Amino acid sequence: MSVQASRVADMEQEMERFTRSLAYNQANLQKILTNSLDQATILAHSHTTNITGAREKAAELELRIKEMKSAMGSLHGDKDRAEKELQMMKQELEQLGVSVQDKIREREGLKMRLAEVEERVVSREQRLRQMEQKNQELRSQGERGLAMYRTHLGLIITRTSRSTLVFSFTQVSRFDPEKAFLLELTLVGDQYRLVTSEPPLPNMQQIEDRLNATNNLSGCIAYVRKAFQNMAK
Predict the structure, then answer these.
(1) What gap in Å lies between CA 223 and CA 109, rounded to an integer?
(2) Does residue 61 carry a pLDDT above 60?
(3) Residue 224's closest CA among 142, 155, 140, 134?
(4) Which helix (H) or strand (E) holds 152?
(5) Which domain holds residue 99?
(6) How far apart are alpha carbons 30 and 163 in whole angstroms?
(7) CA 150 to chain centre
(8) CATH number at residue 160
(9) Quick one: 122 and 74 in the same domain?
């Protein structure tokens, strides 16, 4: 009886230790589960936060990518426009070069024509000086001979409104000394021209040619007087 009682007591003690151990293990398990749940909650929240941040970062990256694409497109457009403008500038420069060359050739042509005109002007001025010199010599010759003509040849020289000279000869005819024989003469450029005579001289053209060939006005006047004398016989 006492042996059985002792066994029962041992079993009760063992059951009590098992119960305490079980309670202890349950408490530890509960603590572990609670800690694990807290850690899982924290980890889930962290993952959620990370996912949200990642999504925001991804959205930000997508926005930046779009902006970069837009900027690249704008850059491409600017590049195309710049290339077109550069091509247009090159064409304008080429046209400008051609225009400059044309202007240079035109200027050289104008210089050549100007030189030719200046040469002609110099030549004409020389001719004018020569004509003026000849006219001066003719006037001097005429003035020197005028006194002699009036005294010895009965010659009177008058200027007309047509800028011609009329030589009036008297004392030509022995039968009518006061009768006037006329010769009208002018100067065209540097050439003499016999306009008319009264009475008409049959060889007036030959007299004119000889006068221009010799430039001897005094000899021409003497010859004409002699011709009038022959006609008055």
Answers:
(1) 55
(2) yes
(3) 155
(4) none
(5) 57-132
(6) 152
(7) 70
(8) 3.30.457.50
(9) yes
